[in-house]
Amino acid sequence: MMKRCCAKREGLKLFDGSKMPSVVKMIERGEKQVSNMRLIQADLHEFEVDYDGDTFVVNLETKTCGCYRWTLMGIPCWHALACIAQRRLNYEDFVHPAYHVKTYAATYAPHFFPMIGEKQWDKSTLPQPLPPPFRVMPGRPSQKKRKKEFGE
After folding, report:
1. Which distant-in-sequence residues (6+ apart) come within 8 Å of 32 by Cβ?
2. How many separate domains does the chain show?
3. Domain that holds residue 56
4. Residue ranges of the SWIM-type domain (predicted)?
5. Which of 48, 74, 84, 115 is 20 to 30 A from 29 (CA-CA)?
6. Is 74 among the domain residues?
């Protein structure tokens, strides 16, 4: 665990921006699909998006889309990105805080203290613990019994 957290903290130094690089890649891939969509603005925050023969309702205020991908992942789906682009808003404002670099850094911020080896532990005068008693579990007995050979 100590190695993993240390490696994550070191890798964190390579990140640029306020969002995780994987999220930025997903957003960039989605921005290429925006030109293929037809948008109808129903309200200031609500849109109807036609894409690939299907219609989705996107609400920028509640951060929801009819495809439910935005709700499940916390990253704007392609339909939402089209609406964000039309309103000329920043997509970073619509990404869930779990994908912020600050949140990632806070996850791996606690330091773990090293532990001494088992040979250096204090010896106890108490008896060694015993395994729990064996008991036959309830249920039907197994039918896969070994066939006895002749003469057994």
Report:
1. none
2. 1
3. 19-99
4. 56-88
5. 48
6. yes
- Residue 101 and residue 97: Cα distance in Å, rounded? 9
- In one letter, which amino acid is 124? S
Q: pTM, whole model, 2 decimals?
A: 0.68
Q: Flag whether 5 is in a domain.
A: no
Spatial separation of the C-alpha atoms in residues 100 and 96, rounded to whole Å: 8
3-state secondary structure at position 4: helix
Contact criterion met (CB below 8 Å) for 100 and 94: no
**Interatomic CA distance for residues 52 and 36, integer angstroms:** 8
Name the helix (H) or strand (E) containing 72.
helix 69-73
User: Smallest Cα–Cα separation from 56: which of 83, 31, 30, 93?
Assistant: 83
Q: What is the pLDDT along the chain (152 residues), one digit of tens a residue?
A: 888 888 888 888 888 888 888 888 998 888 888 888 898 988 889 999 998 888 999 999 999 999 999 999 999 999 999 999 999 999 889 999 999 989 988 888 888 888 899 899 898 899 999 999 998 888 887 777 777 888 87
Which residue carries 């290429």 as its tokens?
32
